[in-house]
């Protein structure tokens, strides 16, 4: 193939927001090497699967997708073309060589801490292509390197950045030292690491400079952030929020995902002081039963969680809560499950994500006795979801009649409509010209539709 011709890259992203962020960073790392993104998988010269290992179903998707890719690769080769395939992300980290063995058409397998080495891996994998098939091996990189990955990942061009939207993710913390007994993340993402303050501020400034209005700070334990400042002092997430609030052009800040144990005074104070910090907090509790919380190794009780929510709401009365729940953790009785419904009722969630417990190899939970039957999990999940769906509906309804600042981000589904997000991350649709896009406007909420709000423009945003 002609080396000067740009090659096409297709990245398929599974899992959490950090994978979305990482996929963009991989695209940025490959851009200087002539790889341009394509939305058409059939046109791709290189396909990267950025995978998720969190639950069994998420992991299984990789192998079925690889089956489809193999067909595409065979077709392309039959017509003189080719297709390289890389598996990245948390399944790659967890399974490494095993993927190369099970799926020999894969060229590269590499974990989340190796993304800055992607161009080198690709060069090696390209060289390997010319080897005899019997000798050819995938390039596998699942090391946790000493060097700072982020310091070696290139930034996107301004036009590329803004083409990705007015809102952006920014990873400030990665990895986890908490070892909840159900969770693979400490094994797939590695130990908790915070990026230095200057590096975060620089990336945030670059995003704002390109026209980004809203940033969501990411971390598996984002509120455990403790990045160093220039003097080597550890700065918490609350203090970081005050620094980010100074960046010209940046209008909104969010962060996810937080652990209840890391919600410190500094961060709660930031919610009190900074209107810029959005009043919507994803604070998973997983279960409302102290017995199950203990078995999950969450290291707090239900009452402590409720007290914490109260403190947060005292600091920021309009705070809307979001959470994650697991049903059917080993040993969960009907009464434990009722405790979960109780904590949901007492907290009152604007939104919530809920999952059946999925046994993950290598986690302590996998070896526990009293695994809960599938049918029981199904029934509990349905009951829990009925409750949280009602809470979400009630929360949307409670917004009707209010005027909310909405960041208008795009054209709406209907002609003459635009759409954006409320402070509470609700989708809002309204009649209006596309000139509104790119700024925060005061919108009166006049109704709700499935999963979104309907609004009417109140006034132009102040300059
Ligand atoms: N760091 C975040 C969670 C990351 S995983 C936190 O501490 O809250 C996202 C969600 O997936 C978790 O909150 C949990 O609800 C769910 N989850 C994780 N492992 C799971 C498993 N083995 N089975 C079912 N759900 C799981
Ligand atoms: Fe997983 Fe617990 Fe770490 Fe969250 S805090 S990533 S649930 S181990
Ligand atoms: Fe999945 Fe890894 Fe994120 S396991 S949820 S992609 S950290």
TrEMBL record:
Report the residue ranges that make up the MTTase N-terminal domain in this protein. 7-127
GO molecular function, a single term: tRNA-2-methylthio-N(6)-dimethylallyladenosine(37) synthase activity
CDD domains, alphabetized: Radical_SAM (cd01335)
Q: Which domain of life is it from?
A: Bacteria
State which Enzyme Commission number(s) the record gives: 2.8.4.3
UniProtKB keywords? 4Fe-4S, Cytoplasm, Iron, Iron-sulfur, Metal-binding, S-adenosyl-L-methionine, Transferase, tRNA processing
Q: Which positions does UniProt annotate for [4Fe-4S] cluster 1 binding?
A: 16, 52, 90
Q: Which cofactor does it need?
A: [4Fe-4S] cluster
Q: Does the keyword S-adenosyl-L-methionine apply?
A: yes
Tell me where it mainly resides.
cytoplasm
Cellular-component GO terms for this entry: cytosol
Q: What SMART domains does the annotation carry?
A: Elp3
Give the family this protein belongs to, as stated in its UniProt record: Belongs to the methylthiotransferase family. MiaB subfamily.
Subunit architecture: Monomer.
Name listed for the protein in its UniProt record: tRNA-2-methylthio-N(6)-dimethylallyladenosine synthase
Protein species of origin: Devosia crocina
Q: What is the lineage of its organism?
A: Bacteria, Pseudomonadati, Pseudomonadota, Alphaproteobacteria, Hyphomicrobiales
Q: Which gene encodes it?
A: miaB
């Amino acid at each position: 193939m002609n080396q000067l011709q740009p090659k096409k890259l297709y990245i398929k992203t599974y899992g959490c927001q950090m994978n979305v962020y990482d996929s963009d960073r991989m695209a940025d790392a490959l851009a200087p090497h002539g790889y341009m993104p394509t939305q058409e998988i059939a046109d791709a010269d290189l396909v990267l699967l950025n995978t998720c290992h969190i639950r069994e179903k998420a992991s299984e998707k990789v192998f079925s997708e690889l089956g489809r890719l193999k067909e595409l690769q065979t077709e392309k080769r039959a017509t003189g073309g080719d297709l390289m395939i890389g598996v990245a992300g948390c399944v790659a980290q967890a399974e490494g060589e095993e993927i190369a063995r099970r799926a020999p058409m894969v060229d590269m397998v590499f974990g989340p801490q190796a993304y800055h080495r992607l161009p080198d891996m690709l060069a090696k994998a390209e060289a390997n292509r010319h080897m005899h098939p019997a000798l050819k091996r995938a390039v596998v990189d699942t090391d946790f390197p000493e060097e700072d990955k982020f310091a070696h990942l290139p930034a996107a061009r301004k036009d590329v950045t803004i083409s990705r939207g007015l809102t952006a993710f920014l990873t400030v913390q990665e990895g986890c030292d908490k070892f909840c007994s159900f969770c693979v993340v400490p094994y797939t993402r590695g130990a908790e690491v915070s990026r230095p303050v200057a590096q975060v501020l620089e990336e945030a400034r670059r995003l704002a400079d390109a026209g980004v209005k809203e940033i969501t700070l990411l971390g598996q334990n984002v509120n455990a952030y403790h990045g160093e400042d220039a003097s080597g002092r550890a700065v918490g997430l609350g203090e970081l929020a005050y620094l980010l609030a100074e960046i010209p052009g940046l209008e909104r800040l969010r962060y996810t995902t937080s652990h209840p144990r890391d919600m410190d005074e500094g961060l709660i104070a930031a919610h009190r002081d900074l209107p810029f910090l959005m009043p919507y907090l994803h604070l998973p509790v997983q279960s409302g039963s102290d017995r199950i919380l203990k078995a999950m190794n969450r290291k707090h009780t239900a009452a402590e969680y409720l007290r914490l929510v109260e403190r947060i709401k005292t600091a920021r009365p309009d705070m809307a809560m979001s959470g994650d729940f697991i049903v059917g953790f080993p040993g969960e009785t009907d009464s434990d499950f009722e405790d979960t419904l109780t904590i949901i009722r007492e907290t009152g969630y604007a939104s919530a994500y809920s999952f059946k417990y999925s046994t993950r190899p290598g986690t302590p939970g996998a070896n526990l006795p009293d695994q809960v039957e599938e049918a029981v999990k199904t029934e509990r999940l349905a009951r829990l979801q009925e409750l949280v769906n009602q809470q979400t509906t009630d929360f949307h309804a409670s917004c009707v009649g209010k005027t909310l600042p909405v960041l208008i981000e795009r054209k709406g589904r209907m002609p003459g409509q635009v759409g954006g997000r409320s402070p509470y991350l609700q989708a809002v649709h309204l009649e209006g010209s596309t000139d509104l896009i790119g700024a925060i406007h005061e919108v009166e909420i006049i109704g709700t539709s499935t999963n979104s709000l309907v609004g009417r423009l109140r006034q132009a945003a102040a300059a």
